[in-house]
Design brief:
Layout: H1 3-7, H2 10-13, H3 19-31, H4 35-38, H5 49-59, E1 67-71, H6 79-86, E2 91-96, H7 99-112, E3 117-121, E4 133-139, H8 148-158, E5 159-170, H9 178-188, H10 193-200, H11 202-213, E6 218-222, E7 227-232, E8 238-242, E9 249-251
Parallel strand pairs: 1-2, 1-4, 2-3, 4-5, 6-8
Antiparallel strand pairs: 5-7, 6-7, 8-9
Helix pairs in contact: 8-11
Bound molecules: S-adenosylmethionine (SAM).
S-adenosylmethionine binds at residues 12, 16, 24, 28, 39, 72-74, 77, 96-98, 101, 123-125, 139-141, 144-145.
Length: 253
């Protein structure tokens, strides 16, 4: 495994057009076996990923018996948190593009004896969301999907009344000059597609799509704006928060 893979950002910034989707699957096939350990270093060692995951699951407002989709679930790192929220009477559907990541998720399901989790190998861009789901979650994955706006729209259409969508992912801090963003990411990953990811600014696409589809969108930024949690259902106002003490705002609607 080369330095790029160790940094954990190659796949995150790879644009999925045509053959690069195959390339991304190949990357995750290689990473799958040790993903649960190496992802703890993601995007850098000490990053509060678990706290962020917890916040994302809390943002779904799940109740016992709910059905939740974990889009691009990987090895199922969110499953224990989701299980706790929906209970054995609830249902979890994990969707992912990469067979090897799903195989690890299946191992997790078996090891825990869960009978209420099903897995689907599918591209988020073409996934046919089942109707009337209570919640949809995607963590550290959706900014990799160029069709993320369509995925959000189709997911929102499949939600039951009051159902919630939550997306947790990485971003470049808003105040970061372009040259500094490149410098910062280049130190961990000297790889051309980071430029494409930064230029594409997929977190903005996700935010706009969720604002369009979910009227009560909340947007929270973590760790100096290097990650975001966007969550919403149906509602009438938009709130924006940041964990930076210097900036906090609510926008009525
Ligand atoms: C960084 S991992 C995150 C996995 C998991 N969500 C987590 O939080 O640990 C990204 C995952 O997204 C999946 N993925 C990437 N593009 C996808 C797509 N277009 N459709 C479905 N899954 C995709 C990859 O196979 C990989 O398992």
């Amino acid at each position: 495994m080369g330095r790029r893979d160790e940094a954990g950002l190659d796949e995150h910034t790879a644009c999925q057009t045509g053959s690069t989707r195959e390339h991304l699957i190949e990357i995750y096939r290689k990473k799958a076996k040790h993903y649960d350990i190496t992802s703890r270093l993601y995007p850098v060692p000490g990053y509060p990923q678990r706290t962020q995951r917890l916040r994302a699951v809390q943002a779904l407002g799940l109740r016992t018996g709910d059905t939740v989709i974990d889009m691009a679930c990987g090895t199922g790192l969110n499953f224990p948190l989701l299980q706790k929220a929906v209970g054995p009477g609830g249902r979890i559907v994990g969707v992912d593009l990469t067979d090897a990541m799903l195989a690890r998720a299946q191992d997790r399901i078996k090891a825990n004896g869960w009978s209420n989790v099903s897995l689907v190998q599918a591209d988020a861009a073409g996934f046919d969301f089942p109707a009337e789901v209570d919640a949809i979650l995607s963590t550290y994955a959706l900014t990799q999907v160029p069709e993320c706006a369509e995925v959000i729209a189709r997911g929102a259409a499949a939600l039951s009344a009051g159902g919630r969508w939550a997306v947790l992912d990485l971003k470049v801090p808003g105040s970061t000059p372009g040259w500094l963003a490149h410098l910062g990411t280049a130190t961990v990953r000297p790889f051309a597609s980071i430029d494409e990811w930064i230029m594409r600014r997929p977190w903005e696409t996700i935010r706009a799509a969720m604002q369009e589809e979910l009227a009560d969108l909340s947007w929270t930024e973590f760790v100096f704006g290097t990650a975001f949690l966007a969550a919403g259902s149906r509602g009438r106002s938009v709130s924006m928060e940041t964990d930076s003490p210097s900036a906090s705002a609510k926008v009525g609607g």
